[in-house]
Amino acid sequence: MEFQWHDLAFHREIGSAIDALDGPHFWARLTRVLERHISFDSWVALRFARNGPPLVCAEQALPDGKIDLLFQDYLAALYQLDPFYLAAFEQRVSGFYTLADVAPDNFKMTEYYQRYFRKNIVGDEVHFNVLIDANYTMGFSLGNMRRYDEREVALLTLFSPWVLALMQQRLRYENFGAVPGASEAAEGGQHDLPARFGMLTEKSGRGALTAREIEVAMLSLSGFSSRAIAEKLTISFETVRAHKKHIYSKLGIGSQSELFALFYEPGLHPFAEGSEGDVTTPAGHR
Protein backbone atom coordinates (compact mmCIF):
# COMPACT_ATOMS: atom_id res chain seq x y z
CA MET A 1 0.00 0.00 0.00
CA GLU A 2 1.36 3.38 -1.01
CA PHE A 3 0.76 6.50 1.11
CA GLN A 4 0.87 10.11 0.08
CA TRP A 5 2.57 12.63 2.37
CA HIS A 6 -0.81 14.11 3.38
CA ASP A 7 -2.04 10.63 4.39
CA LEU A 8 0.91 10.27 6.72
CA ALA A 9 0.36 13.76 8.11
CA PHE A 10 -3.30 12.95 8.76
CA HIS A 11 -2.44 9.87 10.81
CA ARG A 12 0.20 11.81 12.72
CA GLU A 13 -2.40 14.51 13.55
CA ILE A 14 -4.87 11.92 14.84
CA GLY A 15 -2.07 10.46 16.97
CA SER A 16 -1.50 13.94 18.41
CA ALA A 17 -5.19 14.22 19.36
CA ILE A 18 -5.13 10.78 21.00
CA ASP A 19 -2.01 11.77 22.94
CA ALA A 20 -3.84 14.85 24.27
CA LEU A 21 -6.92 12.93 25.49
CA ASP A 22 -6.11 13.39 29.18
CA GLY A 23 -4.83 16.96 28.92
CA PRO A 24 -6.19 20.52 28.69
CA HIS A 25 -5.47 20.87 24.97
CA PHE A 26 -7.52 17.96 23.65
CA TRP A 27 -10.29 20.00 22.04
CA ALA A 28 -7.83 22.37 20.37
CA ARG A 29 -5.87 19.40 19.01
CA LEU A 30 -9.01 17.73 17.70
CA THR A 31 -10.07 20.98 16.06
CA ARG A 32 -6.66 21.32 14.45
CA VAL A 33 -6.97 17.88 12.86
CA LEU A 34 -10.38 18.70 11.39
CA GLU A 35 -9.52 22.18 10.13
CA ARG A 36 -6.77 20.76 7.95
CA HIS A 37 -9.49 19.11 5.87
CA ILE A 38 -12.70 21.09 6.57
CA SER A 39 -13.16 24.84 6.56
CA PHE A 40 -15.13 26.21 9.54
CA ASP A 41 -15.17 29.46 11.49
CA SER A 42 -16.00 28.55 15.08
CA TRP A 43 -16.11 25.62 17.46
CA VAL A 44 -17.29 24.81 20.96
CA ALA A 45 -17.54 21.68 23.10
CA LEU A 46 -20.56 21.59 25.44
CA ARG A 47 -22.27 19.29 27.86
CA PHE A 48 -26.01 19.56 27.32
CA ALA A 49 -28.25 18.93 30.35
CA ARG A 50 -31.89 17.93 30.06
CA ASN A 51 -32.99 20.12 32.98
CA GLY A 52 -30.49 22.96 32.99
CA PRO A 53 -28.17 25.16 30.97
CA PRO A 54 -25.18 23.79 29.04
CA LEU A 55 -21.67 23.72 30.46
CA VAL A 56 -18.82 24.82 28.22
CA CYS A 57 -15.97 22.30 28.13
CA ALA A 58 -13.87 24.35 25.70
CA GLU A 59 -14.43 26.99 23.06
CA GLN A 60 -12.66 29.02 20.42
CA ALA A 61 -10.96 32.05 21.94
CA LEU A 62 -12.08 35.48 20.79
CA PRO A 63 -9.65 38.23 19.77
CA ASP A 64 -8.27 40.36 22.61
CA GLY A 65 -10.10 38.32 25.22
CA LYS A 66 -13.50 39.73 24.28
CA ILE A 67 -16.64 38.19 25.72
CA ASP A 68 -19.17 36.85 23.23
CA LEU A 69 -22.32 38.42 24.63
CA LEU A 70 -24.66 36.61 22.25
CA PHE A 71 -23.18 33.30 23.36
CA GLN A 72 -23.86 34.26 26.98
CA ASP A 73 -27.50 34.75 25.98
CA TYR A 74 -27.43 31.29 24.42
CA LEU A 75 -26.13 29.73 27.64
CA ALA A 76 -28.63 31.65 29.76
CA ALA A 77 -31.81 30.69 27.92
CA LEU A 78 -31.66 30.52 24.13
CA TYR A 79 -30.14 27.04 24.11
CA GLN A 80 -33.68 25.76 24.70
CA LEU A 81 -34.55 26.77 21.14
CA ASP A 82 -31.39 25.25 19.63
CA PRO A 83 -32.40 22.36 17.32
CA PHE A 84 -29.19 20.51 18.23
CA TYR A 85 -30.03 20.75 21.94
CA LEU A 86 -33.58 19.55 21.31
CA ALA A 87 -32.40 16.69 19.10
CA ALA A 88 -29.89 15.55 21.73
CA PHE A 89 -32.69 14.57 24.13
CA GLU A 90 -35.28 13.56 21.59
CA GLN A 91 -33.12 11.16 19.55
CA ARG A 92 -30.95 10.04 22.49
CA VAL A 93 -28.28 8.48 20.33
CA SER A 94 -24.67 9.37 19.62
CA GLY A 95 -23.88 10.49 16.11
CA PHE A 96 -23.03 13.21 13.60
CA TYR A 97 -25.79 15.70 12.79
CA THR A 98 -26.13 18.50 10.28
CA LEU A 99 -28.46 21.47 10.71
CA ALA A 100 -30.62 20.03 7.94
CA ASP A 101 -31.00 16.83 10.00
CA VAL A 102 -32.42 18.54 13.07
CA ALA A 103 -33.91 21.94 12.12
CA PRO A 104 -37.74 22.20 12.29
CA ASP A 105 -39.69 23.15 9.17
CA ASN A 106 -40.09 26.83 10.17
CA PHE A 107 -36.66 27.23 11.78
CA LYS A 108 -35.52 30.10 9.54
CA MET A 109 -38.67 32.04 10.33
CA THR A 110 -38.13 32.02 14.09
CA GLU A 111 -36.97 34.92 16.24
CA TYR A 112 -34.18 32.60 17.46
CA TYR A 113 -32.87 32.19 13.93
CA GLN A 114 -33.23 35.84 12.96
CA ARG A 115 -31.92 37.37 16.17
CA TYR A 116 -29.34 34.84 17.30
CA PHE A 117 -28.35 32.13 14.84
CA ARG A 118 -28.12 34.33 11.73
CA LYS A 119 -26.14 36.99 13.61
CA ASN A 120 -23.82 34.64 15.49
CA ILE A 121 -23.28 31.49 13.42
CA VAL A 122 -24.37 33.13 10.18
CA GLY A 123 -24.44 30.20 7.78
CA ASP A 124 -24.40 26.60 8.96
CA GLU A 125 -23.58 24.30 11.85
CA VAL A 126 -22.84 20.61 12.42
CA HIS A 127 -22.63 18.62 15.65
CA PHE A 128 -20.93 15.51 16.93
CA ASN A 129 -23.07 14.29 19.85
CA VAL A 130 -22.07 11.66 22.41
CA LEU A 131 -24.80 10.39 24.70
CA ILE A 132 -23.62 10.32 28.32
CA ASP A 133 -26.83 9.13 29.97
CA ALA A 134 -30.55 9.95 29.96
CA ASN A 135 -29.92 13.47 31.25
CA TYR A 136 -26.65 14.54 29.62
CA THR A 137 -25.10 14.67 26.15
CA MET A 138 -21.72 16.00 25.07
CA GLY A 139 -21.81 18.06 21.88
CA PHE A 140 -18.97 19.29 19.69
CA SER A 141 -20.15 22.06 17.38
CA LEU A 142 -18.50 23.39 14.22
CA GLY A 143 -20.02 26.66 13.01
CA ASN A 144 -19.57 28.14 9.56
CA MET A 145 -20.23 31.52 8.00
CA ARG A 146 -21.36 29.72 4.86
CA ARG A 147 -23.20 26.51 4.14
CA TYR A 148 -21.16 23.29 4.24
CA ASP A 149 -20.92 21.75 0.79
CA GLU A 150 -21.54 18.10 -0.06
CA ARG A 151 -17.83 17.21 0.00
CA GLU A 152 -17.37 18.68 3.48
CA VAL A 153 -20.43 16.93 4.87
CA ALA A 154 -19.21 13.66 3.32
CA LEU A 155 -15.78 14.10 4.92
CA LEU A 156 -17.26 14.93 8.33
CA THR A 157 -19.50 11.87 8.07
CA LEU A 158 -16.43 9.79 7.16
CA PHE A 159 -14.50 11.20 10.13
CA SER A 160 -17.38 10.81 12.60
CA PRO A 161 -16.55 7.26 13.88
CA TRP A 162 -13.14 8.24 15.21
CA VAL A 163 -14.24 11.73 16.33
CA LEU A 164 -17.09 10.22 18.36
CA ALA A 165 -14.79 7.50 19.72
CA LEU A 166 -12.30 10.13 20.91
CA MET A 167 -15.10 12.16 22.49
CA GLN A 168 -16.35 9.05 24.28
CA GLN A 169 -12.87 8.44 25.70
CA ARG A 170 -12.56 12.12 26.64
CA LEU A 171 -15.57 11.88 28.98
CA ARG A 172 -13.50 10.32 31.76
CA TYR A 173 -11.20 13.36 31.82
CA GLU A 174 -13.79 16.16 31.74
CA ASN A 175 -14.38 17.82 35.10
CA PHE A 176 -18.06 18.70 34.79
CA GLY A 177 -18.16 19.93 38.37
CA ALA A 178 -15.88 22.85 37.56
CA VAL A 179 -16.00 23.44 33.85
CA PRO A 180 -14.10 26.54 32.70
CA GLY A 181 -16.29 28.91 30.76
CA ALA A 182 -19.58 27.89 32.40
CA SER A 183 -21.84 30.88 32.03
CA GLU A 184 -22.64 33.05 35.01
CA ALA A 185 -25.60 34.23 32.96
CA ALA A 186 -27.18 30.81 33.40
CA GLU A 187 -27.53 31.36 37.14
CA GLY A 188 -30.66 33.46 36.73
CA GLY A 189 -32.96 30.45 36.52
CA GLN A 190 -34.48 31.46 33.18
CA HIS A 191 -34.51 27.80 32.14
CA ASP A 192 -37.39 27.12 34.57
CA LEU A 193 -40.04 27.73 31.93
CA PRO A 194 -43.15 26.53 33.79
CA ALA A 195 -42.30 28.89 36.66
CA ARG A 196 -41.53 31.74 34.29
CA PHE A 197 -44.70 31.40 32.22
CA GLY A 198 -46.66 30.83 35.42
CA MET A 199 -45.40 34.13 36.79
CA LEU A 200 -46.34 35.93 33.58
CA THR A 201 -49.87 34.50 33.45
CA GLU A 202 -50.37 35.22 37.15
CA LYS A 203 -49.68 38.88 36.41
CA SER A 204 -52.25 38.87 33.61
CA GLY A 205 -54.85 37.21 35.87
CA ARG A 206 -55.96 34.91 33.04
CA GLY A 207 -54.93 31.54 34.42
CA ALA A 208 -51.68 29.60 34.20
CA LEU A 209 -50.54 27.85 31.03
CA THR A 210 -51.05 24.11 31.10
CA ALA A 211 -48.11 21.74 30.58
CA ARG A 212 -49.34 21.04 27.03
CA GLU A 213 -49.66 24.77 26.28
CA ILE A 214 -46.07 25.33 27.45
CA GLU A 215 -44.97 22.45 25.22
CA VAL A 216 -46.78 23.97 22.22
CA ALA A 217 -45.33 27.41 22.98
CA MET A 218 -41.76 26.06 23.08
CA LEU A 219 -42.18 24.00 19.91
CA SER A 220 -43.55 27.06 18.15
CA LEU A 221 -40.64 29.22 19.31
CA SER A 222 -38.23 26.48 18.17
CA GLY A 223 -39.57 26.63 14.61
CA PHE A 224 -42.20 23.91 14.36
CA SER A 225 -45.20 24.90 12.26
CA SER A 226 -48.69 24.18 13.60
CA ARG A 227 -48.94 21.10 11.36
CA ALA A 228 -45.51 19.87 12.50
CA ILE A 229 -46.51 20.37 16.16
CA ALA A 230 -49.71 18.42 15.56
CA GLU A 231 -47.75 15.55 14.04
CA LYS A 232 -45.11 15.62 16.77
CA LEU A 233 -47.62 15.61 19.63
CA THR A 234 -50.11 13.33 17.84
CA ILE A 235 -52.94 15.82 18.12
CA SER A 236 -55.08 17.55 15.51
CA PHE A 237 -54.13 20.73 13.69
CA GLU A 238 -57.21 22.45 15.14
CA THR A 239 -56.17 21.46 18.65
CA VAL A 240 -52.80 23.11 18.11
CA ARG A 241 -54.52 26.27 16.89
CA ALA A 242 -56.74 26.24 19.97
CA HIS A 243 -53.71 25.85 22.23
CA LYS A 244 -52.00 28.80 20.54
CA LYS A 245 -55.11 30.92 20.94
CA HIS A 246 -55.24 30.13 24.66
CA ILE A 247 -51.49 30.82 25.04
CA TYR A 248 -51.75 34.24 23.45
CA SER A 249 -54.87 35.08 25.45
CA LYS A 250 -53.41 34.04 28.80
CA LEU A 251 -50.15 35.91 28.15
CA GLY A 252 -51.91 38.96 26.74
CA ILE A 253 -49.94 38.94 23.48
CA GLY A 254 -50.76 38.86 19.78
CA SER A 255 -47.65 37.65 17.93
CA GLN A 256 -44.76 35.21 17.86
CA SER A 257 -42.33 38.10 18.40
CA GLU A 258 -44.12 39.02 21.63
CA LEU A 259 -44.02 35.39 22.74
CA PHE A 260 -40.26 35.32 22.16
CA ALA A 261 -39.85 38.56 24.13
CA LEU A 262 -41.67 36.95 27.07
CA PHE A 263 -39.63 33.77 26.77
CA TYR A 264 -36.37 35.66 27.04
CA GLU A 265 -36.33 38.88 29.03
CA PRO A 266 -33.25 40.89 28.01
CA GLY A 267 -30.64 41.84 30.56
CA LEU A 268 -28.12 44.60 30.04
CA HIS A 269 -26.90 43.50 26.63
CA PRO A 270 -29.18 40.93 24.95
CA PHE A 271 -31.52 42.09 22.18
CA ALA A 272 -32.46 45.30 23.98
CA GLU A 273 -33.72 48.01 21.67
CA GLY A 274 -30.81 50.02 20.35
CA SER A 275 -28.20 47.75 21.94
CA GLU A 276 -27.27 45.56 18.99
CA GLY A 277 -25.01 48.15 17.43
CA ASP A 278 -22.99 48.39 20.65
CA VAL A 279 -22.21 44.68 20.86
CA THR A 280 -19.15 43.42 19.02
CA THR A 281 -19.48 39.74 18.23
CA PRO A 282 -17.10 38.24 15.66
CA ALA A 283 -19.09 36.61 12.88
CA GLY A 284 -19.25 32.85 13.04
CA HIS A 285 -18.67 32.41 16.78
CA ARG A 286 -21.12 30.06 18.44
TrEMBL record:
<feature type="domain" description="HTH luxR-type">
    <location>
        <begin position="202"/>
        <end position="267"/>
    </location>
</feature>
<dbReference type="Pfam" id="PF00196">
    <property type="entry name" value="GerE"/>
</dbReference>
<dbReference type="GO" id="GO:0003677">
    <property type="term" value="F:DNA binding"/>
</dbReference>
<dbReference type="InterPro" id="IPR000792">
    <property type="entry name" value="Tscrpt_reg_LuxR_C"/>
</dbReference>
<keyword id="KW-0238">DNA-binding</keyword>
<keyword id="KW-0805">Transcription regulation</keyword>
<protein>
    <submittedName>
        <fullName>Transcriptional regulator, LuxR family</fullName>
    </submittedName>
</protein>
<dbReference type="GO" id="GO:0006355">
    <property type="term" value="P:regulation of DNA-templated transcription"/>
</dbReference>
<keyword id="KW-0804">Transcription</keyword>
<dbReference type="InterPro" id="IPR036388">
    <property type="entry name" value="WH-like_DNA-bd_sf"/>
</dbReference>
<dbReference type="InterPro" id="IPR016032">
    <property type="entry name" value="Sig_transdc_resp-reg_C-effctor"/>
</dbReference>
